[in-house]
């Protein structure tokens, strides 16, 4: 072993929400951690996210008059994933979510006072944080333990196995021109994120989401390092075909990374022909698929003043007013004028809205079967009160929502379903929780929850 090699109890790769959750959990249990981050700044995709976490049965929900439960959360997660998700991982999420919510608060993460309903949720379940501040709070708590050593600008290159037992014992890392080993007596937790910035991998798994059709947004370091390191040792993967873009990203706005989901407040989605093409209440991942299949991979969310006024400025994806102030929402006094501004046939758009309003009155959407504003929540509303608005929208791939096969203790599994001893994973690099679609808040939620589970399992093995 080189004199520059480092030794610790647990090695964690990736300093986002999952990585800091794993590191802090281990440090609180009295163990030393080396946390590797290849970028100069910590946070990764977590810090760039919408700041939504999906929890159920919290004090914040009760304060907002929301009746929720772990079992309803479990049911919703399974349903929105179209039962393609791993039931065991969904159960692990649900069984640990409430404790993790309290743990995050104790670690200094501050939740906003407002609760909102979003994709895949039967009741209001979005718990909001400033994402960058949340990661900084976890980092500060980890630093105060005196047991977490952060190595920024340090890239993990390969996993290291013990030559006798075959157990994963650490990583080979590179910092500047120096290459060295970082060895952990309890193994390695991969919390290295997904691969939104690896065009080759995106094309391999979902060629319909190419660079011409979709927008790709995420931490600059998200190129699949952890995924490939584990695959080299025979790790299995799942849900790769379910990589999807989130609907609602303005196609030409490069200053704002967030989507707007006015459809979840009652807007309809229309294509370049002025026609609806989807049930707007479904997961915004499925809405992303539907949008990508439309001409030019871009559509419009169309709504009226009453829907505009129902927007929620406490939840980024529902903050219609903010997008309007940024000049991204198109406004007109009449539907005919709006159609001219967005260059769709005026007679078609008017007929689309008239037909939809009739379905709302009748209580049945004969075209696409829409029954609610979002998932199983909210009564449909008509689009009839001017002025009228349109928000140009495409699909943005914010995360890959697929990855390594793990068991409920976050052991990484090989292609035969056997654990790779000493190797654990958490966060976006993990597959199996989301399945075919996605509930708002479950990605950031699983980063914190699964990071803690991974650390506990590594220290217990």
UniProtKB/TrEMBL annotation:
SUPFAM superfamilies: FAD/NAD(P)-binding domain, Succinate dehydrogenase/fumarate reductase flavoprotein, catalytic domain. It comes from Cupriavidus lacunae. The keyword Flavoprotein applies. InterPro entries: FAD-dep_OxRdtase_2_FAD-bd, FAD-oxidoreductase_2, FAD/NAD-bd_sf, Flavocytochrome_c, Succ_DH/fumarate_Rdtase_cat_sf. Its cofactor is FAD. Keywords: FAD, Flavoprotein, Oxidoreductase. GO terms for molecular function: FMN binding; oxidoreductase activity. This is Flavocytochrome c. Residues 10-443 form the FAD-dependent oxidoreductase 2 FAD-binding domain. Belongs to the FAD-dependent oxidoreductase 2 family. FRD/SDH subfamily. The keyword Transcription does not apply. GO terms for biological process: steroid metabolic process.
